[in-house]
């Protein structure tokens, strides 16, 4: 029995955030609400209006004795707004844009699934955090 890796490759584990950003910016509903305000890890201080921040939270290789059979990433995508209803609407748009089967820029197909979500109010902002698992 041979084992092969049908998931993400080494490059993709580090660059998956760029793929997520491209998917978010390609969505017309998201672009209408946030424009180009989609940032890796942290937004610029005093960013005005609604915006999105994303970061890779986890990367794991699943293996058996014959080798790695699947890579898995988790990416947090955070919707931030001054208004609760806008934060909820943006979170819904993010979920709709990302959940499902996607073709990455290198042709590899991945499944993206919403695995968790939380909401908080901090620094006068409504914050909706969506955690996506990518296989």
Can you describe this structure?
There is one protein chain. This protein starts with 9 loop residues before the first helix and ends with a strand. The protein is of the alpha+beta class. The protein contains 3 helices and 6 strands; from the N terminus they run H-H-E-E-E-H-E-E-E. A 6-stranded mixed sheet has the order 1-2-3-6-5-4. The chain has one domain: STM4215-like (2-Layer Sandwich).
Task: Summarize this structure as a short list of keywords or feature phrases.
alpha+beta; 44% strand; 135 residues; STM4215-like
Task: Provide a brief overview of the structure.
The protein has three helices and six strands, in the order H-H-E-E-E-H-E-E-E.
Named at the architecture level, the CATH assignment is 2-Layer Sandwich
Reading the helices and strands in chain order gives HHEEEHEEE
Q: Work out the radius of gyration.
A: 16 Å
- The strand line-up of the biggest sheet is 1-2-3-6-5-4
Outline the biggest β-sheet.
6 strands, mixed
**What number is the mean pLDDT?**
88
CATH class: Alpha Beta
Task: Supply the number of structural domains.
Answer: 1
Label the overall shape.
elongated
CATH H-tier superfamily: Phage tail protein-like
Helix content: 25-40%
* Count of DSSP H/I helices: 3
Poorly predicted runs are 1-5
Per DSSP E runs of 2 or more residues, the count of β-strands stands at 6
Terminal residue distance: 22 Å
Q: Can you tell me the CATH topology?
A: STM4215-like
The secondary structure category is alpha+beta
Strand content: 35-45%
